From TrEMBL:
Gene behind the chain: bam
Listed name of the protein: Indoleacetamide hydrolase
GO annotation, cellular component aspect: endomembrane system
Pfam families attached to this UniProt entry: Amidase
Record-annotated Amidase domain positions: 25-447
Key words of the record: Hydrolase
């Protein structure tokens, strides 16, 4: 019999509804899995053992009384440390916030709880979410379960590693510059970067947010199966929490005439695409073509300028306070070194200063809208390079081309578009993952295509740490 920790959220929810297993058994199985493997990957920072078992017992009693079960009834989930979970600290990966306990859930966490999900732990992230490798002075580094010598990605690296190793069937993170999709690429799991306005940003401890994060960052799920992404997504969008960007758009849009067109963007300009990443794109394109999608190659409009405008907005409008403590006072030596080395690279990546970056963003959005009106889906790399060896992002020479390799990622953030990261295979024992991008509020189209890819390519996880 398959171990409970190896099953996805959809399967677990079905087994609980059918009386095959209790909520407590499911939660206990995942807590045991954390006990067994977390010491090897350091993905889960805090285990919510007492509260999750109490919630599981309450869920079992409710089911015994014949009360209607929610679609996620009894399903465990883990939550990144920059998202509010009542009774747990929202640390953002920094030591001064280790006691910053939230009194209430973030709106979408509350919504997932209302659907029956049970938080069982918090997951690791780099300080402030501002590095592409998961490490901090509070909890230390997370290890990629595929290869301890390679990064698990960031900033939702703890979530990706936890889901990949079966410690959680469902993880909740966020994406301001690929922070869901990049760790999904490194750890071989699926992730949904939602549209701007889909999921409320507000939270007691984590908000209000600076303008750049309001505009560029969104919350979304990580899972091993695309259908689990869809299940979680459908129960994250209903509460505004006072977020002025929140838009209660329909979860499924109008049908698109068949065959659905897909543009394949093989590169992100500048540095080109690594052979293994290009191979993954070709494999994914062939799968979609065999399934009846009309696949054609193309180049994304204004890609370099999108990256530059993104960088300008993030640089100029990402501070919560006029004054700030020296980074040395709150961050690890590794983060301090990373930021010292990356600041000049980041400054160059901003390009020519925009007279009005929001006006230029609107112009780029119109170009993309016209481009996607012909082919509503885009198949593209996440980062144009695979997971990097640990320590590479502390090498000034290596850092130079990072912005070029992430152009497709940050263009999606700039324009508020949805994207699904989905694995399509392995190369040199590391996962290969692509992203499917769609028009704003068309997560349904992205998820549909990602399910086709998953059905043909299979899933890569859960795995034992290697």
């Amino acid at each position: 019999m398959t171990q409970l920790w190896a099953l996805g959220a959809w399967d677990l929810a079905g087994m609980i509804r059918g009386g095959e297993v209790s909520c407590r058994e499911v939660v206990e199985a995942h807590l045991r899995r954390i006990d067994e493997v977390n010491s090897r990957v350091n993905a889960v920072t805090v285990t919510l053992r007492e509260g999750s078992l109490a919630a599981a017992d309450a869920a079992d009693r409710a089911r015994a009384r014949g009360e209607t079960a929610g679609p996620l009834h009894g399903v465990p989930m883990t939550v990144k440390e920059n998202i509010d979970v009542a009774g747990s600290a929202t640390t953002m990966g920094i030591v001064p916030l280790r006691e910053a306990t939230a009194a209430a859930d973030a709106p979408f966490v509350a919504e997932l709880r209302a659907a029956g999900a049970i938080p069982i732990g918090r997951t690791n992230m780099p300080e402030f979410g501002m590095r592409w490798h998961t490490d901090n002075a509070l909890y230390g580094a997370t290890v990629n379960p595929w290869s301890a010598g390679h990064t698990p990605g960031a900033s939702s690296g703890g979530e990706a590693a936890a889901v990949a190793t079966g410690m959680s069937p469902l993880g909740i993170g966020n994406d301001g510059a690929g922070s869901l999709r990049w760790p999904a690429q490194c750890c071989g799991v699926s992730a949904l970067k939602t549209s701007l306005g889909r999921v409320a940003q507000a939270g007691e401890r984590s908000g209000p947010l600076p303008f750049a994060f309001q505009l560029l960052a969104v919350h979304g799920p990580i899972a091993r199966h695309v259908r689990d992404l869809r299940l979680a997504f459908e129960h994250m969008c209903g509460r505004s929490g006072g977020d002025p960007w929140h838009a209660p758009a329909p979860l499924r849009g109008p049908s698109v005439p068949a065959p659905v067109r897909v543009r394949v963007v093989t590169g992100a300009g500048g540095t080109g695409t690594a052979p293994e990443v290009a191979d993954a794109l070709r494999r994914a394109a062939a799968i979609l073509a065999d399934a009846g999608y009309l696949v054609e190659e193309g180049e994304a409009p204004a890609l370099t300028r999108s990256s530059e405008v993104y960088t300008q907005i993030m640089s100029n409008y990402s501070r919560a306070h006029r004054d700030r403590l020296p980074v040395e006072a709150v961050a690890s030596p590794g983060f301090v070194r990373f930021w010292q080395l990356y600041e000049p690279v980041w400054a160059r990546a901003a390009g020519e200063e925009a007279f009005d970056p929001m006006m230029e963003r609107a112009s780029i959005a119109r170009l993309w809208s016209t481009w996607m009106s012909h082919a509503p889906l885009v198949l593209a790399p996440i980062r144009t390079r695979p997971a990097f060896p640990v320590g590479s992002d502390l090498d000034p020479g290596w850092l130079d081309d990072w912005p070029d390799t992430m152009r497709m990622v940050v263009a999606v953030n700039l324009l508020g578009l949805p994207a699904v990261a989905v694995p399509v295979g392995l190369s040199d024992a590391l996962p290969q993952v692509v992203q499917v991008i769609g028009p704003r509020f068309r997560e349904d189209l992205c998820l549909d295509a990602a399910e086709v890819l998953e059905a043909a390519a299979g899933t890569l996880t859960p795995i034992d740490p290697r």
